[in-house]
Amino acid sequence: MRKIRKKNKNRFFLYGAVICLCVMGVGYSVLTMNLNFQVTAKKKHMNFELGEIIYFNPETGKECIDYNDSNSTTGNTRGCMKWYVYDNSNADYVNVILDHNTTDIVAWNSSGDNTTMLEVKNALDNDTNTWVYGLNPRLIEANEIATVTKNTSWNSDTPVAVGSDFFYFDSNTTSESDTCKSSDLTGCKFGWLYDRIWLCQFSGCPNEEVGGSRFDGYWTSSKATVTNSSGNDQNNIWVVRNTGQLGTQSPEIAGTNGYGVRPVISISKPLP
pTM for the complete prediction? Predict the structure, then answer.
């Protein structure tokens, strides 16, 4: 009689263990790939370049994809809008500036006082009253702009003489850069700082103003002390001009070719 061979239970156990390990390995690889994708996606929303564009809706507090050029019309405060990164030094949030004025022209303070924002603050509050809490809408500081252009020796608090109370972004001096002036705009690196201001395209901004408003730029939150030829101090405000300059202006100016409101906000990282 032929001897019946017993089944090798150990062999089946070994096969089962190998299959289980293979399945676990595949699952671990898929999980790892998914986590890597998530980490990469988050990193993409953590590191930003100066002037990088972010499309963000301040009414929802989220990134958006339904932007169109009409959303950059002077005076628009709603919907998916275009923002430029101007400061990415903080690990928790990124600072961005809008690509257009939400108010075209308004006085900084009609009384001439350069220590307290008045009309411009009221306009800012009104322009941003439908935005979500926590964005901290405000006006950009003059020193923040100097940091962007790497004008390291400059400080907004230092008194300046008439005729020296401005600097061009691309040269950090009172003289235009050879490659960022009306005859040659090939080297304009900071046109996004004065984007969509009336006639800015002749000084190297990326886009023309939309809406037909004749304004020369926007206010900062920083006061300027300008000494005139008689040795007297004028209490002015630092402004961003359509010519690619940071200059000064009297706080009560509010007529044609005046200055307006361009909000900056802080968006948490990673972008919501």
Answer: 0.83
The DSSP code for 270 is S
Q: How far is 31 from 205, CA to CA, in rounded Å?
A: 46
- Decide if 101 contacts 193 (C-beta within 8 A): no
Q: At a CB cut-off of 8 Å and minimum separation 6, what does 114 contact?
A: 108, 223, 224, 235, 236, 237, 251
Interacting residues of 165 by C-beta distance below 8 A, sequence separation 6+: 224, 226, 236, 247, 248
Q: 3-state SS of the chain: helix, strand, coil percent to 5?
A: 25, 25, 55
- The answer to whether the beta carbons of residues 166 and 246 sit under 8 Å apart is yes
- For 152, the 3-state DSSP assignment is coil
Q: Quote the CA–CA distance of 259 and 249 in Å, as a whole number.
A: 9
- The pLDDT of residue 144: 98
- Give the pLDDT mean for 53-77: 97
**Following CA atoms 249, 169, 122, 102 in sequence, which dihedral angle do they give, to the nearest 10 degrees?**
120
C-alpha 162/C-alpha 182 separation (Å) is 24
Is the per-residue pLDDT at 31 higher than 70? Answer: no
Cα 83 from Cα 55, distance rounded (Å): 6
